[in-house]
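can u do me a favor
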């Protein structure tokens, strides 16, 4: 399949079925949006506006229609005689990402390992943080802090068999670890001292911290922390529909170990390597082939 860039006027928009009709090269074709993409650009879709997007040159059947699937949208605007009105511009998003990344000073790369549900269903089980890894640098890439601690679970002290099988941790490791409360005050001190941007891969770590505060009756650090989801930046920049695994992202920029060991500090350091590679791409110091790390070589 070949990728095509379609530019034309929106003739109709069926929000329920996530379809638009576009006049392109004197023909009207139907195009289908995945829900995740429509959630981003749906509010800009109106009949009469100009849209530019990418598709692959192969139709598929969707309900009663033959459609092309939209891969990503470049631009949505209203064509005017003197000056076009821009509603959505992919170039602006890329420029904003570059500015955000280049302006960061102290940066904390954070990764958490969690306890895992037992093999049998237990509605009372709550996942808890059992290992924390932090790699902290300044804007010149000088290492300010390395932090790796095992955490004793508060609600379910005994690790499940699934947890022990998946992670490189033993029951003794967490029994000898610090309490979540001790980690909380370590984390609070680091944040107050360095005021870092906190880089995470996905939303799970941020959510786990919030749940940990609640489970241990500790005040949230929401006002003191600023999280940046590096996975989301990659998805937006490279127009990815699906999530990109941490070590697949690493392979985009450098050679990765054959096996991920699921160690919190290792994964925090890997996140820092991915960040440096991504920053180099944003500043046009490095070119990468995103297709090389995607399943089947396609988005």
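np, heres the sequence
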């Amino acid at each position: 399949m070949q990728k095509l860039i379609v530019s034309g006027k929106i003739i109709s928009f069926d929000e329920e079925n996530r379809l638009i009709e576009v006049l392109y090269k004197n023909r009207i074709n139907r195009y289908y949006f995945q829900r995740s993409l429509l959630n981003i650009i749906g509010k800009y879709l109106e009949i009469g506006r100009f849209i530019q997007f990418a598709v692959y040159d192969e139709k598929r059947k969707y309900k009663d229609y033959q459609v092309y699937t939209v891969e990503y949208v470049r631009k949505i605007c209203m064509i005017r005689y003197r000056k076009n009105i821009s509603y959505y511009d992919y170039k602006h998003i890329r420029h904003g990402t570059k500015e955000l990344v280049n302006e960061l000073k102290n940066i904390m790369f954070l990764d958490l390992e969690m306890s895992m549900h037992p093999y049998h269903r237990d509605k009372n089980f709550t996942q808890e943080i059992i290992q924390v890894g932090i790699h902290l640098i300044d804007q010149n890439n000088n290492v300010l802090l390395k932090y790796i601690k095992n955490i004793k679970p508060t609600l379910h002290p005994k690790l499940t068999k699934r947890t022990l099988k998946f992670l490189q941790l033993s029951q003794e490791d967490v029994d000898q670890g610090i309490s979540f409360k001790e980690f909380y005050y370590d984390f609070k001190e680091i944040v107050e001292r360095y005021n870092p941007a906190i880089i995470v891969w996905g939303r799970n770590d941020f959510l786990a911290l919030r749940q940990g505060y609640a489970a241990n009756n500790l005040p949230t650090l929401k006002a003191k922390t600023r999280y940046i989801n590096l996975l989301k930046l990659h998805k937006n920049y490279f127009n990815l529909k699906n999530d990109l695994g941490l070590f697949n992202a690493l392979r985009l920029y450098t050679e990765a170990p054959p096996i991920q060991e699921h160690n919190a500090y290792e994964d925090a350091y890997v996140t820092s390597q991915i960040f440096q590679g991504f920053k180099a791409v944003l500043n046009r110091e490095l070119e990468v082939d995103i297709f090389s790390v995607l399943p089947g070589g396609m988005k």
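DSSP finds nine helices and 13 strands in the chain. hope that helps!!
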